[in-house]
Amino acid sequence: MNAVNRSIDTKTYQQRDAAHHLHPFTDYKALAREGTRVITRAEGCHIWDSEGNKILDGMAGLWCVNVGYGRRELADAAYKQLMELPFYNSFFKTTNAPAADLAAKLAEVTPAGLNHAFFANSGSEANDTIVRMVRHYWNLKGQPDRKTIISREYGYHGSTMASVSLCGMSAMHGQGDLPLPGFHHIDPPYQFRDGANMTPEEFGLAAARKLEAAIHHIGPDRVAAFIAEPIQGAGGVIIPPMSYFPEIQRICREYGILLIADEVICGFGRTGRWFGCDSFDIQPDLMPIAKGLSSGYQPISAVMVGERVATTFIEEGGEFYHGFTYSGHPVAAAVALENIAIIQREKLVERVAGDIGPYFAEKLRSLEDIPIVGEVRTMGLIGAVELVKDRKNRTFFERLGATGTICRDHCFANNLVMRAVRDTMVVSPPLIISHDEVDELVAKARAAITATARDVG
Ligand code: PLP
């Protein structure tokens, strides 16, 4: 199992890559200077590079490989479907069995009331689809002035023009004159930064009421929807207090605006329930899903659509002029179905809630004895270790992000993948991670954070 594919020469691939491959989210000069790690294979919770290093993947790829690497069942499902029907589209009143089965399965496992699936290929495409659905919905309802979609600072919803406009990442907006008109951002429920003097209950209500203030500022008749990740993942694993979403739900209902729960990271067991909506008691009108839907084995996403929007579209909408060549791709759908079957068969959601999640929480919290650790946050198998200059006063480092980068590099040098968001180290391992692997992850994180403290001290 440990064999390394020696036919891959690291230098050749680094040079080829630097010469021809424009990577996502990458500084190209730095890549050419420093080279990349060439990943050659993976098994369970580990990946291997072309130098033979075995690396613990604390990020499950990009928050997506929920069932772990090397699943023969998923390869078999893809092979079988490729031989039977490798492609056909789902435009113009055509379907295929895996797409229909997957839509039905998703209606069963997602929160009550979400009974229709619109398929796409990525989280970004799902959120772009949602922006079009929201506008189309309000036009059909005779309220075309309802255009503004409210989202949050540090929210991440994708990289296409509409989905990046939903994002609350200023660096992303700086490139490309974004956001587009019709997008408004409010503060996130980031208690470590903004709520030191409040109880979680008080802070959750105060943070939710920023939505109400924004609605009044924009004008209640001009607001179309509010979008939020149950836990803000790429923004630094910001976990809201339990009082936050019930108040958000109340506000959305009171002003009639659509509530969108972006489950691209939280879905499929990550939080210890099937969906983050189940963990926080959210009843969304629209719900994008991706990543854990196929555990990253195939590019597939979906928008789960609730009755309010679905009925309007079906009864009043006429043709919906939107879709992708690969919407409802039979191979991707077959793999997603088998992936969901694995999650159910192996009771992975129950495992996260009752066994490995609490163990992970306890172990990660043990890092709080390191002086630069300001706070450890976890829910299920998603976690954050926030690094600060002064824990007592919650003072961040001056050059926000520099310390996180140092720590991330220490992790990587020590064969652990952890990601840095500003100075917060985030972690989101496969749901099959063993107790020993959690110990390995936390021991390596401790070594990296301790080395970082020495570097910045
Ligand atoms: N929504 C959330 C919450 C995400 O975390 C991401 C990606 O990380 C996306 C949407 C975009 O998904 P994709 O990268 O598949 O376009």
TrEMBL record:
- Identify the species of origin: Oceanibaculum pacificum
Which metal ions or organic cofactors does this protein require, according to UniProt? pyridoxal 5'-phosphate
Keyword Transferase included in the entry's annotation: yes
Which terms in the Gene Ontology molecular function aspect does this entry carry? Answer: adenosylmethionine-8-amino-7-oxononanoate transaminase activity; pyridoxal phosphate binding
Q: Which Pfam families match?
A: Aminotran_3
- State the superkingdom: Bacteria
Q: Where is the signal peptide?
A: none
**What GO biological process terms are annotated to this protein in UniProt?**
biotin biosynthetic process; gamma-aminobutyric acid metabolic process
| UniProt keyword annotations, A-Z | Aminotransferase, Pyridoxal phosphate, Transferase
- Similarity remark: Belongs to the class-III pyridoxal-phosphate-dependent aminotransferase family.
Query: What protein name does the entry list?
Result: Aminotransferase
InterPro entries per record? Aminotrans_3 (IPR005814), Aminotrans_3_PPA_site (IPR049704), PyrdxlP-dep_Trfase (IPR015424), PyrdxlP-dep_Trfase_major (IPR015421), PyrdxlP-dep_Trfase_small (IPR015422)
